[in-house]
Amino acid sequence: MDKLVIEGGPRLSGEVTVSGAKNASLPILAATLLTDERMEIRNVPDVADVRTMLKILQALGVEAVKDGDRVTTRPTPKRQWLAPYKLVSTMRASICVLGPLLGRLRKAQVSMPGGCIIGPRPIDLHIKGIEALGARVKIEHGYVHATAGSLRGSTVYLGGPCGSSVLATANTMMAATLAQGRTVIENAACEPEVVDLADCLVAMGAKIHGQRTHVIEIEGVKALHGARYTIIPDRVEAGTYLLAAAMTRGHLFIKNGRAEHLGAVIDKLREAGVQVTSANGGLKVDAPRGALRPVNVTTLPYPGFPTDLQAQMMALMTITDGLSVITEKIYPERFMHISELNRMGAYVFLEGASGIVRGVRALSGAPVMASDLRASAALVLAGLVAEQRTDIARVYHLDRGYDGMERKLEQLGARIWREKA
User: Fold this and answer.
1) Pairwise CA distance, residues 295 & 392, whole Å
2) Quick check: do 2-19+233-420 and 22-230 share a fold?
3) pLDDT at 116
4) Which residues, in sequence order, are CB contacts of 339 under 8 Å at separation 6+?
5) What is the mean pLDDT of residues 387-399?
6) CA angle, corner 10, sides to 9 and 15, nearest 5?
7) What residues form DSSP beta bridges with 251?
8) Which member of 146, 217, 223, 245 has the lowest number of beta carbons within 10 Å of its beta carbon?
9) Which helix (H) or strand (E) holds 53?
10) How far is Cα 376 from Cα 380, in angstroms, rounded to an integer?
11) For domain 2-19+233-420, which architecture applies?
């Protein structure tokens, strides 16, 4: 098992290239199950979750080969509808094979998903979406069993207690592309990753409208064809490097960073005193040498502040001059990183679904442990500015979602390397 070692201090500077979006790649790879023809997906990041999804596709009877940032898929005659526990249990997003399996084969058996431990994430909205299309669903022995003689378009409201669901929207939309008639998804998620999936499905011959809004309309077609498609840049990775530059008081050009995907994050950074501008196909970030101002943040569905950058934002707030409040509205229990940040000298305490942060003069290096994907990124950012050495265990979480993070940070001047734990 690997660990990351960081010696804090250097200011980050230079240019970093953002890889393809992990959270867009996974449902788009799942969408290849909807066609009997060859697909070519480009700008796919080299992360563990993508490798897991490729194994799931192969288990379902699809030839899936990754060459650099390109994945090619082609279904074989041995199509399967069972997504096994061994693979699905490691990754929450693997549930997104449910919709395309049901749409194409009219049958799916998918293990209940696993992934990061960030609080309850039920799949009731996924089930609601496919049941509205006529699927019969039961959960037995840890598996979701879904069957349908035929799928028919319907109107379904996918609102949950924490807002719309990205993966439930994706599953319902994929199944609806091959349903008879018109489907309307109300309170649909409109995150860039949902739009990217919809645009890929349109390239495959689907008829979809409204994917940039909370009402998505799908007119079912008889079949989808193969296509070539390029994944959008990863907004969470771009946001992580924005925050890394702010923490180290650095100057970065983030190639492929898109301001239109990160409006809430850029707004909060500017409020804290960091300059962020769009330039030449990316984002330029300049952080002042002096103290940054504390800001209050509430995570919300897009276009609100993303929950996947909450932990990294908290890391930044630990070294600002004052008091800040970070409230989690998407996953109210997503605060496993607080105890580890406090081990590094931060002063953070939990009050309900809010982390109260009192900024300190400096963080100190310490042995810490990553609890989930985004918490691991927050600990890396903290290590970049901490005095002396930080050892981060369980970095396999980081490898699930960041393409070569330590390599990219090293090229920007960070003292970071990987060791066997």
Assistant:
1) 27
2) yes
3) 43
4) none
5) 95
6) 145
7) 13, 286
8) 223
9) helix 48-59
10) 6
11) Alpha-beta prism (3.65)
Q: At 86, which helix (H) or strand (E)? A: helix 85-88
Q: Which pLDDT score is estimated for 227?
A: 98
Q: In this structure, how many other beta carbons lie within 10 angstroms of the beta carbon of residue 13? A: 13
Which residues pair with residue 291 across a beta bridge?
none
Q: Is 190 a catalytic site residue?
A: no
Q: Please tell me the distance from the alpha carbon of residue 304 to that of residue 258, in angstroms, as a whole number.
A: 15
Provide CB contacts within 8 A for 161, sequence distance 6+.
none
CB contact at 8 A, 242 and 266: yes
Across the strands, what pairs with 254? 16, 283
For the chain, which residues make up each domain, given as ranges? 2-19+233-420, 22-230
Q: Is residue 247 a contact partner of residue 315, using CB atoms and an 8 Å limit? A: yes
| SS3 call for 272 | helix
d(CA 159, CA 43): 31
- Active-site residue identified among 116, 162, 190, 200: 116
Identify the CA nearest to 253 among candidates 413, 14, 44, 70.
14
Q: How many CB atoms lie within 10 A of CB 314?
A: 26
Rg (CA), the chain: 21
Note the pLDDT of residue 118.
Answer: 39
3-class SS shares of the chain: helix, strand, coil, % to 5:
35, 30, 35
From the list 235, 233, 193, the residue with the least C-alpha distance to 211 is 193
Give me 124's structure tokens. Answer: 């009731």
What pLDDT, on the 0 to 100 scale, is given for residue 114? 54
Alpha carbons 295 and 322: distance in angstroms, whole number: 9
Overall pTM surpassing 0.70 (yes/no): yes
**Distance between CA atoms of 202 and 177, rounded to whole angstroms?**
9
Distance CA 360, CA 379 (A): 16
The fourth-level CATH superfamily of domain 22-230 is: Enolpyruvate transferase domain (3.65.10.10)
Decide if 182 contacts 208 (C-beta within 8 A).
no
CB 84 within 8 A of CB 97: no
Q: Which helix (H) or strand (E) holds 408?
A: helix 405-411
Residues contacting 244, CB < 8 A, separation 6+: 12, 250, 252, 380, 381, 384, 409
Torsion of CA 189, 192, 193, 199, to 10 degrees: 100
* Residue 91 clears pLDDT 90, i.e. is over it: no
Q: Phi and psi of 109, rounded to 5°? A: -135, 105
